[in-house]
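Q: How would the structure tokens look for this protein?
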Amino acid sequence: MASELHSATVLGDAELSRRRKRFARGATLGLDDLASARAPELLHELREVEPVSWIPELSGWLVTSHEVARTLLGPRQDVTVLSEQNMVRWSLGRMMLTVDAGEHERLRHPFEVPFRPREVDTRFRKRMLTLCADLLEPLRGSTLIDLDAQFCAPFAVRMAGELLGLELGESRRISDFYEAFADAMQYDEKPARLARADEARVQLDALLVESIARASSSDTFLLETRERAKESLSDDEFIAQLRVIMFGAIETIRATLLNTVVLLNEHPGARDTVRSDAGRYPAAISEAQRLIPPVAFVERWAGRPLDLGGVAIGAGEFIGVSVVGVNRDPRVFTDPDSFRLDRSNSQRALSFSFGEHHCLGFHLARLQSTVAMESLDTYLGPYEVSAADEATGFAFRRPTTVWITPVT
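A: Here is the predicted structure in token form.
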């Protein structure tokens, strides 16, 4: 790691013992608990007694209060992403999400214009509709559909290719790369996970370099953005930003679609409402992302000693935000565990983070998810979820399998 990174904070036995006693509820929770289907219930319990708590298995702090999380992620000089512990950096490399302030702005700025709402709609809506038709038309008349394998994953991967103006090859291979990246962000630091992410990064970079070399149309996000960035970003830096943009374009969309389909199936009244009025899909998607955030964990480090929600935190210490927890904070969201289309403040959720590292592709993700959900209705008609795993995952949260059956 570069010398700019903060080293992990090492605590003595006496301090560790003190924290276990002071934050007794947090001390009982492990990574498996926070990844489980029961996580929302456990995080409610934790928030009530320790809204900022010490979690021994994380070797760090966990925030479950919405107010404290916004304070942490908002503009401030005493919090950083620059740390040797940053698993996003280990997995995806040095890029806009793993640097601060001016460096972050330099890496992000060339990509901002194409992600504005009007540009996103003008450039990509027709492509999304065509891609949905290509994937869903062959599924008409099917009796059982593997939603992720037959639609969500290929839609997300191929749309990422459309976004970048790249020929990205067979979608399963690209999905495997990003599953390796996500798997490496688990905070258990298992060498095998990290090695798979390293190999996936090498293979993806080679694929991106080849694809960029083949790009020829001036009417692409890729070439326009590369021209905008040519004076400020090296070739390696440009590739690194593409890696993380693709990660958001793939993992976030897959999870959002799977989670939204399952939640609507569990709430027939809401399902009937959106099927009769497609204009309600954005509300359904926002509420699904609040309840089951695709990115369920956000990481920061204390750049210097600070007070967070009344808890003293030392320089270099790790601070994680449970997005699952803050998105169900009853002080912000009335009836927080319910799926409600009439919720007026779903977009206060921190599913796309907050502050300078707020998701670059927020508007694209909302449009893409809406088009995909409407297209499922258009091409398949009414359908039911015939089988689905519960949504799980510590850093990234979704069901691993969802099967749907069209209703004739």
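The longest helix spans residues 235-266.

The chain has one domain: 13-406.

Upvote if useful.
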